[in-house]
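Predict structure. Chain length: 410.
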Amino acid sequence: MTPGVDQTIARVVRDEWPQLMATLYRDLGDLDAAQDAAQEAAEIALTRWLDDGIPDRPGAWITTVARRRALDKIRRERVGREKTELIARLERIGTEHQLVIPDVDDQLQLFFGCCHPALSVEAQMALTLRSVGGLTTAEIASGFLVSETTMAQRLVRAKRKIAGATIPFRIPEGGELLDRLSVVHHVLYLVFNEGAYASSGADLIRLDLSADAIRLARVLAGLMPDDPETLALLALFLFIESRRNARIDGHGAIVLMADQDRSRWHQPLIDEGTTLIDRAVRLDRPGPYQIEAAINSLHAEAASTADTDWAQITLLYESLAVHRPTPIVALNHAVAVAMSDGPQAGLDLMEHPAIAEPLDSYHYLHSARGELHRRLGDRRAAVEHYDRALALVTNEAEERFLRERLREVS
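Prediction complete.
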């Protein structure tokens, strides 16, 4: 396979897949058929373009071939009035290599359909990556560290639920739109977090997942440029991604933010994130992702941990708790208090039942406690909490970090 063909297919998947899938779903009215046709057309392109050369409009070529393959399959397998009407519609579209660009509504329908709240969160994530992101089942399975068979079964169950419950691929209206958009945001947020802070496996960072979440967030921000939370979500991803190269040292060990070489932070991503969050704030509709992005912007603009405006970050976490009154937000607030007012102030908050009880099985709580006790010079308490964190952690990079911390305090 020539590099040109391989790279062109990758570019189509990266830049044109949401439009391509929205077009095929609009034409076929069947998500499963659209996915299969698009995947088959991309596989045909990998071999056909070696002999015929890469077409001038690769995305349009794949769309046209996908329509033809879908039409052939419909002629073979379907019966009755539905078959006649669908064939007539596809034949009217024609066979020229013309990518009929779907309007914004078509692409938003695809997002909202994949993130329908009737589906499980796992199914929403998988469907979004498969349909909007263009990933194969094997790639999604690898990203979530499950077998391809398991992921395929999840996708099949999700599609059956969509078909059986006649879940509509449409843009909600009124208050439902905001509720459903928050589901889309949440799915992208979960995908990104699993990429940036892998819950299991050998590596701390799953670059494939975080990159896919950023790409999809860019698509959504392009479709909804006046929604402040959509803009802030992308800004949040970019701020965190800007620190990626500094989070791991040359030996694969975790480097905490306080010890990171900030010259390795990627300034263009910080600048883009700053522009996005400024736009979001000017729209004057505050929300939780804007607060999270603002917290990360304060980290980005500080020359060091000592120069960071921890008092402002503490206040922002208090505002975030109004939107998300969760134990994890409370824990992050306690960490900010520890940085602003000293380790003991942070520990006092972490020992409150509202944090300690629901997060007793959350390894970050115990590692944070261990870190604060270490700073206070209480080695026995630090060892106790690092041991507890080690018993709970499932990521190998984090396990190595905790073992090193335990060795230091022991």
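Summary: The CA atoms of residues 324 and 370 lie 26 Å apart.
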